[in-house]
Amino acid sequence: MEPIRQLPPPRTTTEMQRVIGMFAYYAHWISSFSDKINKLVRNKTFPLPADVKLAFDNLKNELENATLITIDYNEPLVVETDASDVAIAASLSQNHRPVAFFSRTLNSSEKNHSAIEKEAYAIVESIRKWRHYLLGRPFKLITDQRSVTFMYGGGQKGKVKNDKIQRWRTELSEYKYDVIYRPGKDNHVADTLSRNVCASMGNNNQLRELHNSLCHPGITRMFHFVRCKNLPYSVDDVKRVISSCKVCAELKPRFWKSSGKLIKATQPFERLSLDFKGPLPSNTRNRYLLTIIDEFSRFPFAFACADITSATVIDCLTQIFCLFGMPAYIHSDRGSSFMSSEINSFLLEKGVAMSHTSAYNPQCIGQVERLNGTLWKTISLALKSHNLPPSHWESVLPDSLHSLRSLLCTVTNCTP
């Protein structure tokens, strides 16, 4: 019954209408219901006056007391679900008498679901919550999303292509249920719980007080407490409150993740980094540029290539090795041409060690990535000076390389 206990007072006329509809749905089990709901019906001012708020709290207590303690398993159970932009909710009842309620906020990834997926997810989560009641017994499933009745209804196998929905359907296949569509305006209970959670998201004063009373826990422990208590706050609310807390900012230490240690070359031609740039516009068959840089001296190499195969890489490295000898290490990204067995065998025969970056981490070969940008900018300037189109880049490549090799490198403060 925690969602009912935590249900905030309505703050607008629309919220008040939802709350009245929810209480009216269970009016048969609340004694003197007309007298008790009268103050809420007549109220026109917000926030609620003290006497109206007291009547609201009394109705919540009455609804909690009307809950079934023991279920008659000879009578069918009814699960009603609903979802809003930031929350999902459900009610479990038997013969229109409440058994249990459920609601919770959606996390950041769940908020990205489509509206239909949120409605479908509300069904899955509520059935997981009440699995001990529902497994092995037929029950009715009521939703205000007609598409969900198609997805979870019988006889629609193979027609749903959404992988997420397919997994949820497989999970629910062990239950016996009938899916019933009911318009949202008639789905009072679940609609009220999900919408009022949504409406209360912007008020963080109580969350800030709770954070203070719990002695300023961090985001993980604070959000765990909020989820355990079914409080109407999202992880974004928790992050916002904690990041704006002056006490936490003043007293809590800041932990910084240290960057990986950079492996530096200690002498010329000890370590080479290489990478491909392309495909590039070209008036020849060479549409790629293999760039290589000496990590110690920043001396650049560049080769126009027709493809990016390992055979091409081996041919270019052979030309360098014939002039300068063997380096100790060669470093590259995880491109297929650099990861092949041919490259490994070639370098192993030459006594050269090979290393690769981690996946999707171009910072690990930052020098050669920087060379790609600098070299192409130099080529573009040379083409512009000679009034040539970009496809003629191969004709100005030697001049561009000579420029980079002979001019000052601002990192080493000397020429390569």
UniProtKB/TrEMBL annotation:
Record keywords: Endonuclease, Hydrolase, Nuclease, Nucleotidyltransferase, RNA-directed DNA polymerase, Transferase
> PROSITE patterns, alphabetically?
INTEGRASE
What InterPro entries does the record tag this protein with?
A: DNA/RNA_pol_sf, Integrase_cat-core, Retrovirus_Pol_polyprotein, Rev_trsase/Diguanyl_cyclase, RNaseH-like_sf, RNaseH_sf, RT_RNaseH
- Segments spanning the bilayer are none
Q: What is this protein called?
A: Retrovirus-related Pol polyprotein from transposon 17.6
Please list the residue ranges annotated as the Integrase catalytic domain.
264-416
Does this UniProt record's set of keywords contain Nucleotidyltransferase? yes
One GO biological process from the UniProt record?
DNA integration
Q: Which superkingdom? A: Eukaryota
Supply the PANTHER family for this chain: PROTEIN CBG26694, PROTEIN NYNRIN-LIKE
UniProt feature coiled coil, ranges = none
Mention one GO molecular function.
hydrolase activity
Gene3D superfamilies given in the database record? 3.30.70.270, Ribonuclease H-like superfamily/Ribonuclease H
